[in-house]
Every structure is written in structure tokens, then in C-alpha cells.
Amino acid sequence: MKALYELIIGRLKLVPEIKWVDKKNGQQDSSLSYPGVLISFASTNKDITESGDQEQDITVTLTAVFDGTGLRSSSNVSAATFDRALDYERICDDIYKKLQGYSTSDFEAFSCKSIGDDTRTDGYISKTMIFQTSGYYYIE
Questions:
Q1: Alpha-carbon distance 69 to 39, whole Å?
Q2: pLDDT tens for each residue of 84-131
Q3: Coil, helix or strand for 88?
Q4: Which DSSP symbol is given to 16?
Q5: Cα gap 10→13, rounded to integer Å
Q6: CA 53 – CA 26 distance, rounded (Å)
Q7: In what order do the strands lie in the sheet with 54-67?
Q8: How do strand 20-23 and strand 36-48 relate by DSSP bridges?
Q9: Model-level pTM?
């Protein structure tokens, strides 16, 4: 998964607003600058080649996290406040565009299976995007 993690980090570095990318380990740190992206993986083996390499279907879950302090997206706020509150949607669209359909010689094209807002009560805003790909785990 290291190669896939590095590939995703490289793609997310193309979104200039992203301040950090990390594997999801339950962390949420108020000392971090936001926005950031948490990544987790799940895989299932499809085939094993004669050399022992394993082809895997891989689910990649990205959670984009934003500081939601003071952001209000009510229809009763000014246009400027509304636009600033929904700027995270533009950043999430950029993340989607960097991965959707992207492929390499080691990984099939990423295909987004779902995108959704997460319900939170801690002052953060987050959106989870789930992508599918497949690739080979090479036995050394």
C-alpha cells in the first residue's frame, strides 16, 4: 500500500489548499492547520500470479477535514459569508478531479463510488470520498 499512499499524496499535492495528508488513525488535532485529508485503505485479493504477485481490488477512503469555526451556510447570511462557508465544496471538487479516472501502470483508473458530508459536532466540517482501484502487490 506504500506505493498507493505515495501516489495519492502526489495527486493531493496538486490541490494547493491542502495543508497535510495522513493515514487515518483516529487523529483529529486542533493544533493542525486545515484543510487536511485523512486516508484509509481496504483491499481484497483477486488473483495470484505464477510469480506470487497478488492482484487486489482496493477501496480508498479519503476524508477531507476543514475547520468549520464561524462558517454559516444558511440562506439568511450574506453572499460573501455563504461563499466562504461553502469553499470546502470547491476544494473537495478539486480533490475528486485529481483522482477520478487517474491511472498508472501499477493501478487501474480510480473510480469514485460515493461522496458524502459527515455529521460532526466538534466544529469541523468533513466530506468522505470513496474510490475503487485495483493493482498488484509485488512479492519481493
A1: 23
A2: 878 899 999 999 999 999 999 989 999 999 999 998 888 888 999 999
A3: helix
A4: T
A5: 5
A6: 31
A7: 20-23, 36-48, 54-67, 124-137, 111-117
A8: parallel
A9: 0.84
